[in-house]
Design goal:
Blueprint lengths: L1 H8 L12 H8 L11 E6 L6 H14 L4 E5 H8 L14 H24 L4 E5 L5 H14 L2 E8 L3 H10 L12 H16 L15 E5 L4 E5 L4 H10 L9 E5 L4 H4 L11 H17 L5 E4 L3 H8 L6 E2 L16 H7 L1 H9 L12 H17 L3 E5 L1 H11 L9
Parallel strand pairs: 1-3, 1-4, 2-3, 4-5, 7-10, 8-9, 8-10
Antiparallel strand pairs: 5-6
Helix pairs in contact: 4-5, 11-12, 13-14, 15-16
Length: 412
Amino acid sequence: MAELLRELKQTRLQKIWIPHQCERLQQRRGSSVPQFTNSPTMIILVGLPARGKTYISKKLTRYLNWIGVPTKVFNVGQYRREVVQTYKSYEFFRPDNQEAMTIRKQCAINALKDVNIYLTQEEGQVAVFDATNTTRERRSMILQFAKERGYKAFFIESICDDPDIIAENIMQVKLSSPDYKDCDREKVVEDFLQRIECYQMNYEPLHNDLDSSLSYIKIFNVGSRYLVNRVQDHIQSRAVYYLMNIHVTPRSIYLSRHGESELNLLGRIGGDSGLSPRGKQFAHALGNFVKSQQISDLKVWTSHMKRTIQTAEALGVPYEQWKALNEIDAGVCEEMTYEEIQEHFPEEFALRDQDKYRYRYPKGESYEDLVQRLEPVIMELERQENVLVICHQAVMRCLLAYFLDKSAGNEH
């Protein structure tokens, strides 16, 4: 053991292993559900149809789950489809259709009941209430529901008066809606525009003066302008930060591991070695692939480590280095094989198997730490258009978990 410690002290990272202590390891693992708030939060969408509310709901839910905040979307339209299984026409949404209005209100109430179950019995922290919520009366009902149960309420209103954006949304999303299955394209557009007019009749946007006590963000024309009011806490500020970074422009994001490194050949984790001969072949092949795709204005990102930089060099294009993209820090286990870790640190090896996501290498990082480190990368990716990210195995797992909508703990 003394020889091993001397070797560890001589590594580039100059890290010293501290012997196993149960309490220290328990603290390092953390709790099973990170608590970012003292009380649950309801995020309530507001806006006319075809304003991107469901898109916003899904994106925000994916992000919050990825950073470790248990979040779930409750789409009132799905509740309505379960009750009224055959959609006929926009007439169902007329404000003077009393029978339909009763059904729609009951669907909202049923969704709120499920929100309560999620936040009280299923360890949920954030519930996203995805509906139009275009009247002050409906929003008051939701606010009263939240207040009685001690939930915080945060509104997201999507306002769009650009006819081109609205038409694009209808064509991309509503044509595939279950409401219009097997319907003629022109009839779908005509019916949906009339549905919007039904909501427009009674639409009461959030008011700067009347609603000044509420917490909300208004998003104008899919991000051309924002108005933020009374952000209460960390969760709401994270949501605002995220929403101000996303866009709807179609683009391609490519994720690639670096070419095989010299330490990969030896089965050793971490380190900062260069590419092996086979790794250089991979880098050359990646360059040929990128050229064949003819991607306009492609940006290339790498970590600060040799193996990603050498992979990018083979592309013959400018690239940007991100320290945040560096491989997970294995601490005192850097440049060891898994067999060596199991032999010298058997308890650490077993603990990693029990909870790979929250396990933190001694003097190193956990996947949970890595997610926090990668958050600025995700924010910048959301702002960008076409990007190729050349990174490492653990980093790619975390990035893929975000884009594939995997919650914390499902990265590997």
